[in-house]
Each structure stands twice: as C-alpha cells, then as structure tokens.
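Support request from a user on the community tier.

User writes: "When I paste my structure tokens into the form, the page sometimes reloads and wipes my input. The last time it worked, I copied everything first. Here is what I submitted, just in case something in the input itself triggers the reload:"
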C-alpha cells in the first residue's frame, strides 16, 4: 500500500517586521545615516524582518536594489517586503521584484465625499483616549519577543539579552532591560521607555534607534532611567534621563 502523501497547508499569518523609510537614492549617504543611527557595522539587529517604505523616495538615478539590500544586511536586517512603491518608475519596480521582495502598495485611496446634505457634524472628541496595556508577569529569556499592538507594555521582570519587547505605546520594564526595546512602533513620537536598570542592546522610539555600539551615558547605565524622543535642529534624537525617587 503506497504511503500517504504529506499534506500541504497554506495559511494566512502575521509576521512582525521593522519598517524603514527610505528617503535617498545615494548609497553613500544612506550608509552614513545608518552608521549615525546604529553605530559601526556589527550585530545591531539579529536577523529581524524588514519592510522598506519607499513612499518618500525622491526621483533620481535608478535604484541600486542589490547594493541597498547588501547594505542593510550588514546590520543583520533581513529585507523581505516593500510598501509605497507604486509611484516609482518601472525600472525601479522591476529591480525590486527581481530581488524577490514581497510587494504591497498600501496606497491610501480617497473616499468619495458624500453630498453636503448627508454630512453630519463631527462628534466631540473624548476627554481622554482609552489606552490598552499588556502586562507580562514573567522574565523574558533570549529569543522571546512580545509585541503590545496598539497598547502600552509592562514587563514585571527581566528582559534578557536577545529578548525583544515592542509596543505601539510606552514600555515599562520593572527589572533589568538588557535586550531590545522598541516603543512607538507605529510612529508615536511621544512614546517612552522606562526601565529599573537600563542596559539595553537596542533602544528605539518611533523609528529612531540607538544600539550598544554607542555606549549608554554613565548616568543611566544599569540605573533607573527613561528614554524619550526630542526634536532638534538636526532632526530627532533619543535622550536618556536618570529617574530619581
């Protein structure tokens, strides 16, 4: 009797991925921006999936896709998809497809305006928006990842080296933060990270990163501290402040 053939299951799933907005076609300029953000080439990341947002990419010479992907992989990022590429010229789109990147335009479409008579007055804004909170009451070991989607994240313990915590809102770690912490993952610039002992491998708020390639200031290293994003004349940067009780 012939052996039964193995069944093939194809299912929809959700894969968490970092997103990087590309705003230059100049490879040297991009490399310098990455070095300023993440330090010297090294294990800034650990093979995280990456989605390239090309919606703000200006016109210019053809996009050198293989060189771009090789540059990103130097920081151990794994480019897997692109969004916002519908406006690019056909050679650029062909190069992206040839590189095997998944394709999603995700271009917002404007809804038709209803007749004037059908327009209702906007409801008053609520006094305070309700924010969900995900609470993790155990330590996180290396290789574990927690994502608080549309919520704040509270970890009541250690976040080990190699573990990762991600939140669309704030992140609170009531223990040593030694892994990676990404707050404001969907672009919320007022998000903050608080830790009882700040020793992180990577810190990010709304897409602005800092890795262990650039040591933390002595006044916050292995001490209670907060991380937040501030606007400067040169752009946005992370600031690190000790917490005093």
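"...and here is what came back when it finally went through:"
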């Amino acid at each position: 009797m012939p052996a039964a053939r193995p069944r093939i299951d194809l299912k929809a799933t959700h894969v968490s991925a970092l997103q990087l907005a590309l705003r230059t076609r100049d490879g040297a300029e991009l490399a310098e921006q990455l070095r300023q953000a993440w330090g010297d080439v090294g294990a800034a990341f650990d093979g995280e999936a990456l989605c390239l947002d090309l919606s703000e990419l200006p016109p210019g010479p053809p996009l050198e896709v293989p060189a771009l992907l090789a540059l990103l992989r130097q920081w151990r990022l794994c480019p897997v998809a692109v969004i916002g590429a519908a406006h690019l010229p056909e050679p650029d789109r062909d190069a992206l497809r040839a590189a095997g990147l998944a394709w999603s335009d995700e271009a917002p479409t404007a809804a038709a305006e209803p007749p004037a008579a059908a327009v209702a007055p906007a409801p008053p804004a609520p006094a305070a928006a309700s924010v969900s909170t995900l609470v993790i009451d155990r330590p996180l070991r290396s290789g574990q990842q927690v994502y608080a989607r549309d919520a704040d994240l509270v970890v009541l313990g250690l976040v080990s080296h190699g573990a990762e915590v991600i939140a669309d809102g704030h992140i609170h770690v009531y223990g040593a933060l030694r892994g990676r912490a990404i707050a404001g993952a969907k672009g919320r610039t007022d998000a903050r990270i608080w830790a009882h002992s700040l020793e992180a491998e990577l810190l990010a708020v709304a897409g602005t990163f800092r890795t262990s390639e650039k040591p933390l200031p002595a006044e916050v290293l292995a001490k209670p501290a907060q991380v937040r994003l501030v606007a400067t004349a040169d752009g946005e940067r992370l600031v690190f402040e000790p917490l005093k009780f």
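Agent notes: The reload is a front-end session timeout and is unrelated to the input. DSSP finds three helices and 15 strands in the chain. Confidence is low (pLDDT under 50) at residues 106-130. Escalated to web team.
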